[in-house]
Amino acid sequence: MASTEPPAIRPIGVDDCEGVWPLSIEAGWNQTLADWRFMLGAGRGFGCTGPNGQWQASSLILPLGQRLAWISMVLVTRERRRGGLGTRLLKHCIGEVQWAGAVAGLDATEQGRPIYLPLGFRDLYPIARWHFDAAKDKPSPLPGVSVRPLGAGDLPRLALYDRPHTGMERPALLAHLALRQPVRAWLAEDVGGRIVGFVLGREGRTATSLGPVVADSEAIAIALIARASAAAPGPFIIDVPAVHGPLRAWLEAQDAVTPRGYMRMTLGEAKGLDDPSHLFALAGPELG
Ligand SMILES: CC(C)(COP(=O)(O)OP(=O)(O)OC[C@H]1O[C@@H](n2cnc3c(N)ncnc32)[C@H](O)[C@@H]1OP(=O)(O)O)[C@@H](O)C(=O)NCCC(=O)NCCS
């Protein structure tokens, strides 16, 4: 029988990644151990264990600059749900973020949103998760734009391009993704060598995740996604702000399906975060 004592909130360290991974597997999520290891190393995890020391609930804060922090991996094992654990962990994370003077952002599932709304989070925009097996369309060249593999030497420029287009400061995350799956990392440049877009990706437990995709235009974003998905076999998942109609049409033409979505939400104002005009795919709801 489940204990009725409210368990203490404990930090989750990098060494606990194997212990918390079953929580995301139970929820059917795509994270690998490498994802947990990165998130717990770059951010701070908090959770609760049961009497046998097993992790029963988790939550995570990933700083994305001084002013913004992403709350993610809010997971409660099935047998402990509806007992207030999710709300307690979330309140703990909010307290930590606000103490640091930052704004909290997150991508809410349908299950998570009923917790976040009463705590003051407001909706920014909806996001559709797409699944597809393989890109049917071959990557085609765009006039005045060249697409090439991204190298380690591009990373400082990449972070400078990303920040004003997304409102996020995330050089460590971009470097992690670029080096983890070089085959999915592509850069688009104009004739003057100026960055006009990029795509990164990572292997997942059930599918390769494509994103982030940041670009000057939707045509460039589509060219980058076509290139990254043609580079090695799928299946793929990609999280796309619902506002991007042509990209949605391209995904439908690849026989992609969208079984669920998220709502991007914030607690407070974060400059640029409410504007997805240059953000064509998330790094992931857990990463921003
Ligand atoms: C979402 C989740 C973390 C909630 O954890 P929890 O410990 O059950 O949450 P709480 O007990 O604090 O619930 C808080 C309130 O949220 C609402 N709520 C929670 N789960 C709900 C559900 N399945 N349907 C409707 N309302 C729900 C209720 O208002 C609930 O209060 P109540 O139980 O007094 O009615 C848990 O269901 C879970 O791990 N889900 C799978 C992973 C997930 O979607 N995480 C959210 C990522 S954004």
Detailed description of the structure:
By secondary structure, this protein is an alpha+beta fold. It has 2 domains: 10-126, Gcn5-related N-acetyltransferase (GNAT) (Aminopeptidase); 129-260 and 268-281, Aminopeptidase (3-Layer(aba) Sandwich). Helices cover 29% and strands 31% of the residues. The protein has helices spanning 17-26, 33-42, 85-99, 113-116, 155-166, 171-180, 218-230, 245-253, and strands at residues 10-12, 44-49, 55-63, 68-76, 103-108, 122-132, 145-149, 186-190, 195-202, 208-215, 236-241, 257-267, 279-281. Strands 1, 2, 3, 4, 5, 6, 7, 8, 9, 10, 11, 12 and 13 form a 13-stranded mixed sheet that branches. Helix 5 (155-166) packs across helix 6. The two termini are 37 Å apart. Coenzyme A binds at residues 27, 74-76, 81-87, 108-109, 111-112, 114-115.
